[in-house]
Design goal:
This protein is α+β, with helices and mostly antiparallel strands. The protein has 6 helices and 11 strands. It has 3 domains: 132 residues, no CATH class; 104 residues; 80 residues, no CATH class.
Length: 339
């Protein structure tokens, strides 16, 4: 049993035995009553990495089913919502958690401030307790086996959509380039005619009014560039989805799962990362978070940073840190240059 101090009072949570999906139900008593469903889940950033924990109000996972009774009740009012603990990051940094998401009652009304803080405390405490279990590795493996078929179906649909979108943007870019070239050539032809034989109609056709040849020759190359950038973005998304699909389709046993590593270094820009130190992190999430915070202070003093990376070896962790830096750099570049 775990005891949770909340703004609404003390809440006690008793964990059930894990079911065949790797999920655990926490039964609440005290200031809040009901059930919290907790299970290992995929990382929000990488679906093929089950290094996160999802806690949902009610007896079912929020990502798989509608909220199911018994929901968590505070003063008789039932609530639904969920949160995700991202184990690759310390619990005390904003990106260590995703959510809580949609803390609302059964009528769709947002939870009052005190109730929202209470529900957040409950969700986070249950997620932390689940991640600290001695059999967490087995639960991760079970949850991955259970969740992989659905994730593969979703990724298959996302890959198909990204392929179609990429082809459409490429076709649009080519069409805009062709139309721009033709508009420019037509404008110069009219200009030569006007030079040889000035005429009011030719002068009118040469004016840069809306959708004129001059106007189209000016904006169509910009449209082509926008479509080309969109096609490149879809290509990156497609590569990411395919990588996740391959990772999920690859059989993974508990004995082969990635381990957490501390990667300490300094980002030089792009995918250029000066890695100073790589060290395997403790398996216990709380111990790992405490040690991460200690290392973070030292790294900050040296103008560096620390990340928790899941990989099979220290070398793989360093490579993965560089890959994540490159992806972050590309995402920032897209956001800055977005038209």
């Amino acid at each position: 049993m775990i005891t949770i101090a909340t703004p609404s009072g003390t809440v006690r949570a008793v964990a059930s035995e894990a079911d065949t999906t790797g999920s655990v139900l926490y039964t609440l008593t005290g200031a809040a009553r009901g059930t919290v469903h907790v299970t290992a889940t995929h990382s929000p950033a990488r679906w093929d990495q089950f290094d996160a924990v999802r806690a949902s109000l009610g007896s079912a996972s929020a990502v798989r089913a509608l909220p199911a009774e018994p929901l968590v009740r505070i003063r008789g009012r039932a609530y639904q919502g969920s949160t995700v603990r991202v184990l690759a990051h310390c619990a005390d940094v904003p990106w260590g958690w995703q959510g809580p998401v949609s803390l609302v009652d059964t009528d769709g009304r947002p939870a009052p401030e005190q109730a929202a803080r209470t529900l957040t405390s409950i969700l986070r405490a249950c997620a932390a307790d689940y991640a600290a279990r001695s059999d967490f590795a087995r639960l991760q493996h079970t949850a991955r086996c259970h969740g992989t078929p659905q994730l593969l179906r979703w990724l298959d649909a996302m890959i198909s959509y990204a392929e179609r979108a990429q082809d459409r943007y490429r076709q649009d870019a080519e069409a805009h380039r062709i139309q721009a070239t033709r508009s420019l050539a037509a404008w110069w032809t009219l200009a030569r005619w006007f030079t040889d034989r000035p005429h009011p109609v030719l002068a009118l056709l040469l004016l840069p009014h809306r959708e004129s040849l001059a106007h189209r020759a000016e904006y169509l190359p910009q449209w082509a560039a926008i479509s080309a950038r969109a096609a490149d973005a879809e290509a990156r998304r497609l590569a990411h989805f395919r990588s996740e699909y391959e990772g999920l389709a690859r059989p993974a046993g508990p004995e082969k799962r990635d381990r957490p590593y501390f990667v300490v270094g300094q980002w030089q820009g792009g995918d250029d990362v000066d890695i100073w130190h790589v060290e395997e992190a403790p398996a216990d999430p709380e111990e790992r978070a405490d040690l991460c915070e200690e290392y973070r202070e030292d790294a900050d003093n040296a103008f560096g940073s620390i990340e928790i990376v899941y990989a099979a070896s220290p070398e793989a962790a360093a490579d993965k840190a560089r890959q994540e830096a490159r992806e972050t750099s590309e995402r920032i570049h897209r956001e800055v240059t977005r038209p």
